[in-house]
Automatic annotation (TrEMBL):
Gene3D superfamilies per UniProt: lambda repressor-like DNA-binding domains
Source organism superkingdom: Bacteria
InterPro entries assigned: Cro/C1-type_HTH (IPR001387), DUF5753 (IPR043917), Lambda_DNA-bd_dom_sf (IPR010982)
Leader peptide range in chain numbering: none
Stated name of the protein: Helix-turn-helix domain-containing protein
Organism ancestry: Bacteria, Bacillati, Actinomycetota, Actinomycetes, Kitasatosporales
Record-linked Pfam families: DUF5753, HTH_31
Residue ranges constituting the HTH cro/C1-type domain according to the UniProt record: 16-70
Length: 286
């Protein structure tokens, strides 16, 4: 388990090592091509140091990488803007957001797909402003109104990934407790359930409910998120959110275990169509 920045450096370095060997180059030969010392290439490949976007472009050119999607992804992991020139908007909140949250947002903005199990609250990407405010107020103590407004603003800004081109593909399994827990009062919860039904009809969203009747399930150990990235699965990562930090799992065996767990949860959950009816029934007081 590593923190977010370390995971991204390690994954970026591993991908660069694969690209270098695929180009038939040793680390020394690659260093000479771009005018560096071999130790710099080695530090980048092991993840012990980051790489500037300009330096990364030199490496990708030296390795003959022409795949635009792969170049864009690797450049974003190195800290560049995306191809559309959009800035990493969350940097404006550096003084407010803890580093682990900023890094989570960074991964979320770069991912092509996200699978999430939620056992306590509605996923942040699907929260209404009122629900987000109630959850944030309960989770972050001693927060003044300005701070609360800022965190809610960030939560809502994150939802733009579902409207981007192409949008993030979101697959979510919600334990029934998420729908039954009255966050913010009856009115707030009623609007939140309506929002979930609206989102579930979007082509990029697959929403399933795991009802109480499903009994004990593998997700009882806690919520998790799996981020997947375009062009290469080697950059995929599992995120476990904790009270004071987030843990990032990058080993292939961890990714396989959580991917299998999510598939199992989807199998035992209601279908997307039946989930819509179920949410509607809860909203109607069933």
């Amino acid at each position: 388990m590593q923190n977010g920045p370390a995971v991204r450096r390690r994954k970026l370095g591993a991908e660069l090592r694969t690209l270098r060997t695929g180009a038939g180059l040793t680390s020394g030969e690659a260093a000479r091509l771009v005018g560096w010392h071999q130790s710099k290439v080695s530090r980048i490949e092991t993840g012990s140091s980051g790489v500037k976007p300009a330096d990364l472009r030199l490496l990708l050119d030296a390795y003959g990488v022409r795949d635009g999607h792969l170049r864009e992804l690797l450049l974003m992991l190195a800290g560049a803007e995306d191809a559309g020139g959009r800035h990493r908007w969350w940097h404006a909140y550096r003084g407010v957001l803890p580093p682990t949250y900023r890094d989570f947002i960074s991964l979320e903005s770069q991912a092509s797909a996200m699978r999430t199990l939620e056992t306590t609250v509605v996923p942040g990407l699907l929260q209404t402003p009122e629900y987000a405010r109630a959850v944030t107020r309960a989770a972050v103590k001693d927060l003044d109104e300005d701070g609360l407004d800022t965190l809610v603003e960030v939560r809502l800004a994150r939802q733009d990934v579902l409207r981007s081109d192409p949008p993030l593909v979101l697959s979510a399994v919600l334990d029934e407790a998420v729908l039954r827990r009255e966050v913010g009062g009856p009115g707030v919860m009623a609007r939140q359930l309506e929002r979930l039904m609206e989102a579930a009809r979007l082509p990029q969203v697959r929403l399933q409910v795991l009802p109480y009747a499903a009994g004990a399930h593998i997700g009882l150990t806690g919520p998790f998120v799996i981020f997947s990235f375009p062009s290469t699965s080697d950059l995929d990562v599992v995120v476990l959110d904790q009270l004071t930090s987030s843990l990032y799992l990058e080993r292939k065996e961890d990714l396989m275990a959580y991917s299998e767990a999510f598939s199992t949860l989807q199998f035992h959950a209601l279908s997307p169509e039946d989930s819509l009816d179920y949410i509607a029934g809860i909203g109607d007081g069933a």
